[in-house]
Sequence to fold (339 residues):
Amino acid sequence: MTAVLTGIGGFLPPKAVTNDDLSRTLDTSDEWIRTRTGIRARRMVSDGLSTGSLAVEAGARAMRSAGVTGVDAVVVATTSPERLCPAVAPEVASRLGLGTVAAFDLTSACSGFLYGLATAAGLIDSGTADTVLFIGSEAFTTLVNQEDRATAPIFGDGAGAVVLRRGEPDEPGALGPFDLGSDGALADLLAIPAGGSRQRSADAGLGHGTVPTADWYLRMEGRPLYTQAVERMTQSALAVLKRADWPVADVDWFAGHQANLRIVRAVAEELELCEERVAVNIDRVGNTLAASVPLLLNDYAARGALRAGQRVLLSAFGAGLSWGSTVLVWPEIQAEPIN
Fold:
């Protein structure tokens, strides 16, 4: 038995921020952002919306898609938690009316959806759960310095969710083999220095006022990250295709993490996949980290571009550094259009 995708849902906060909006406060322009990232607009939390509330909305839609009112476990992947403690997943489960089911968070930044899929599949494979609601949810713009032209235009907020059930390995929706990897030696290429135990221990007794303001926000080394992302996603995708015994020519859709349009296209080129088979929605939502891939899948499924029986390759890369890939044959499921 294995984990089978049986429902999907997504949610975006209502506040839309265009490149022109950003250019009013940043030394940037719509053309500068579009040519470097492929992004035209993104959604941002406001009015009290946060990671948990986004997760609840996406999770409810995924459960409706799957036709279920209960699950055995809830897993939330996020790098923008509600609080450092406790995890948000138990609260999400409670707000969804799921009772006292197992619920926990995991953190793997932009690779969170792939790591979370593997974790949720493990719960099912081990017999711990028959059904799992897995949600990637991010309010990451709250951790980005909105005065930093290198990072502020890139990120957006949102949540994407899937329901997995126990099923047969040869049925549509069954998750294929996984390829996961990391390189912690390069962790500082994408990091938020302050807020964790390392900074708190070093500054013990000095107070938060001694920490430079910039340390509370994301730092990114763009050029080396680009190289690493293309190399690692390509290698991971090829590895999982080999394990699944799928020729690249059999892939109908490449659903890569939406970090940067140039990265997605470069990976597709390395894989020798034509542009028509590359799924893209970064132009409208930006980089939503762990929510990126499920939002992309929901988007394409809801408008009929992603159809039952099509072969899908999933791959992501993010902070850690971390990366992962898997494959599946898309099942017959209904997806609600994302707001």
Remarks:
- The two ends are 35 Å apart (CA to CA).
- Residues 178-185+218-329 form a domain with the Peroxisomal Thiolase; Chain A, domain 1 fold (CATH 3.40.47.10).
- The chain has two domains: 2-167, 178-185+218-329.
